[in-house]
Design a protein that fits this description.
By secondary structure, this protein is mainly alpha-helical. The chain is about 70% helix and about 0% strand.
């Protein structure tokens, strides 16, 4: 029985951390008001992106230069204006003259922005620039693997994940993504080994349990699949992995998740007491 794999791709969780790293790298522009410098503007980009964007525009007019343009680009990223942010980051990064590690992080953010804008080729170019500067950064390799998975470049995904796990073998997120990649390439024995490794490190990992159930369902092990999905629902809470596992359980039981969900929303809520048929308020 084939159950559609629902495994949300990994998005970067290091965006806020990048702001912290950037703060304090360069000196304050002498023409800027006290409130307008790289530290404060980038921090505001994270907390109040709309305000930070307008403030950075003002700062640029007062001589903030490349720092002000960087802050605008980061504010756009936090506002979800991915294409605009990517274009702005690509324009300003070469002019900043920051250390290689920080520059690599910025190219990674540009790649992440293009990825969210569904521009996979452009995302790949920027991630590759980042990795060229920091070839031993497993996070950048995992981020590029995520982007390449979005483009279904599974062999390239596998190569990036193998490199990342050589550098940091305890990354459960990368192990699970590699298991999914191997599953898609028809290498289920190896996928199973990766999943066992991942779940030994994190037995309650909902993504791993979801994928384990999917693979078991594909090979006809309905009992094992349902056990894994039930465990995923139990530990996942209100997440995409939990919802996907619940949908798969319903399909396994011969139900339609969409109809079941619609019926649940349409059903009137009661407190268990008898009620008459009159509309509320009468």
């Amino acid at each position: 029985m084939m159950i559609t794999l629902k495994h949300p791709l990994r998005f970067s969780t290091r965006l806020a951390a990048a702001v912290t790293v950037l703060c304090g790298i360069a000196g304050v522009a002498s023409a800027a008001p006290v409130a307008l410098n790289r530290d404060t503007c980038l921090e505001r980009a994270k907390q109040l992106p709309d305000f930070a964007y307008a403030e950075a525009q003002l700062w640029e007019k007062k001589g903030g230069g490349d720092d002000a343009r960087l802050c605008q680009a980061m504010a756009q990223l936090f506002r979800g204006e991915y294409k605009e942010s990517a274009v702005a980051l690509e324009a300003v990064i070469p002019a900043l003259g920051l250390p290689p590690k920080v520059t690599a992080g910025l190219w990674g953010k540009a790649g992440w922005a293009w990825f969210n804008a569904k521009e996979h080729a452009k995302a790949d170019v920027d991630y590759t620039k980042a990795i060229g500067l920091q070839p031993t950064d497993p996070d950048l390799l995992i981020d590029r693997a995520t982007e390449r998975a979005g483009a279904e470049r599974w062999w390239d995904v596998l190569r990036d994940l193998d490199r990342a796990l050589t550098l940091d073998g305890g990354r459960v997120d990368a192990i699970i993504m590699r298991a999914e990649t191997k599953h898609r390439l028809g290498r289920d024995v190896e996928a199973g080994r990766d999943l066992r490794m991942a779940l030994s490190l994190d037995p309650d990992n909902a993504q791993g349990l979801l994928l384990s159930g999917n693979i078991k369902a594909d090979r006809g092990d309905k009992v094992g699949a349902k056990a894994d999905w039930s465990h995923a629902v139990q530990v996942a809470g209100d997440t995409a992995a939990g919802a996907a596992a619940q949908d798969n359980i319903l399909r396994l039981d011969g139900k339609d998740p969409l109809k079941d969900d619609a019926a649940g929303k349409a059903a009137p809520k009661t407190d268990g007491k008898k009620t008459d048929d009159k509309p509320q308020g009468q």
